[in-house]
Amino acid sequence: MDRSEDDHAEDFRPVPGIAEVVSEQEDSYPAARVRELVERQRRRERELSSLYATARSLTVLRGLDEALASVVEHAHDLIGTDIAYLAVLEENGTYLRVRATAGTLTPGFGERVHAPAHIGIAGRVATTRAPYWESDYLASAEIVHDPGVDSAIEAEGIVSMLGVPLIAGGRFLGTLIAANREERPFVRDDVALLTVFGDHAAVAVENARLYDESRRALRALETAYATIEDAGAVHEALTRLVLAGGDVGAVADLVADTLGGGVLVLDHAQRVLVSRGQPADEDEAKVRERATLTASPRMAAAVVHGIEESRKSGRCVTVDRGDTLRHTVAAVVVGATHMGALVLSRHSDPDPVQARTLERAAQTTALLTLTQDAVVRAEERVRGELLTQLLTAPRPFSTELALRARARHIEPSQLDTVLVADVADDRLGDTTRLLNGLAEEYDGLAGEHLGVPVALIHTQDAAEAARSVHQRLGRVLDAPALVCAAPVPPGAEPFGSSVTLASRCCRLLRGIGVQDGGTTTERLAMYTILFDPDRDQDLEAFLGHSLGKLVAHDTERGTDLLRTLTAYFANSRNLAGTARALHIHTNTLLKRIERIGSLLGHDWQQPDNALRLQLAVHLHDLARQVEPSTSQR
């Protein structure tokens, strides 16, 4: 049965004093009525006294959960029902969640009556913002029922319920409910008393919410201040490292101690200079793998990608290797020159302040590297001068020049190969720096000669050296590069002639469309005599005129005429040998040759025409062999 606030407009009207009742109405009221009025007055005084005492206790500042529990306990004592609980409006105003209970017996009662904001008496009060009660909740047809909520109510044995709204500043906060395990109507005094208490409780709940927010804000400020202080201390320590002439190992120690996890310092060639710290729960095998990027291709690829992204953005970048570790990479860059990277490995991403600390550490590493690099560059200038002298001096070398080379652990008599790297102009510095490190592995030296990165090395397999250097340059530069190896000239001729030949071969390769790869001058040298590498348009015209029709036919119709012609010349135009090389029948080969003739002209096998075609086919085949496969890039 609906008992709303409008039905009780006279709640808390003034009650006559005891003396006044006795003196004015003694003659017209029987003694029983007088005693009833006196008892009612006394009960009202006790309720008001309890209400005011409760209101005072609710004004004490406390956390929200503590305030909600206090409200429910006081309501339970004040109204004298079997059960009291408080449902708070949450989840953007769509659900009512029970946050505090008193007098309940079934476990998990609060969780079970969590329901949308229109369900049950709590939902009715939330909708109307007015008190509402039912003497038999489960039998009521006036409220919206929910099977889960009804099941919890029935399990608890609740029959009658009274709910009042908690409203503060015009905002509905929740519903305070008093309930009995027997059918009982709620009188006007009950409704009015709980309503007034609910008004006080709403203020207390709102104050507790604001108090919680202020405490959270204070804690956030304290945390932010502590974080700023910690970051400032780290930055001061980094500054002291620079002023004291520290090294990158000290930077790695500081980062590992401050941010936790493992820290790697890499040089410009992605070689590990320093390894410090260790992520939590990382076993020794993982430590070794992380400290040697070459032993972990997946990690190396992720780190290289992170370095490139960090160089572009100027910020640290977190990359995922696919396991539980996260690698945060900060590139060490001075201007447009890549000098290395810091890699932080741990199980979580750094927060913004930690990321800024890592970036500041990378800047400090750049400063320290610049200082150390000044010494290195001085040495490079000396080595560059030595390289130039070795390339231009006649042989045998003078005793003075040989001694200067040996002082840098280079035996000039063992130098047998020249490597030339052909890259974009904006990567010359990086390429020369990388070649310096790579040349040492081949007991040689490197530098820039006439604007070209050049290395003088000792190797027993020039082709393999060219391919290896190309692959390692490509991984670091992340850009196309041509590397050509040439043997040093015999006799007294200076090494510089090999530089000229290798450079011409690189330009020849670009002329036939090859932009990336590693090879030797062995098969290319002849073509640099026949064609001017600096006139690549002539090469393109020659290849197009000679093979253009075959290439177009193969592309349009999916045939294999160009490969057939290549095999035909490779087998000295022997039909049987060509058929075996192509794994086809001789009749099939004859049909292909006939088709080639229809495209190139029936005189294509005449000596002059065949020579021209053979040159074009060989150049085309060289381009195909030099270009690296996808797996090699």
Describe it.
This protein is an alpha+beta fold and 633 residues long. 55% of the residues lie in helices and 16% in strands. The strands form 3 sheets. The chain has a 6-stranded antiparallel sheet, with helices on both faces. Strand 5 and strand 6 (171-180) form a beta hairpin. Helix 2 runs antiparallel to helix 3 (64-79), helix 2 (31-58) packs parallel to helix 7 (188-243) and helix 8 (248-259) runs antiparallel to helix 11. It is elongated and about 145 Å long. The two termini are 81 Å apart.
* Helix percentage: 40-55%
Q: Uncertain segments of ≥5 residues (pLDDT<50)?
A: 1-26
Main sheet specs: 6 strands, antiparallel
Radius of gyration: 45 Å
Number of strands: 16
Query: Terminal Cα separation, in Å?
Result: 81 Å
Shape summary: elongated
Mean pLDDT: 80
How many helix segments? Answer: 21
Q: What percent of residues are in strands?
A: 15-25%
Q: What is the SS-derived class?
A: alpha+beta
**Strand line-up in the sheet with most strands:** 3-2-1-6-5-4
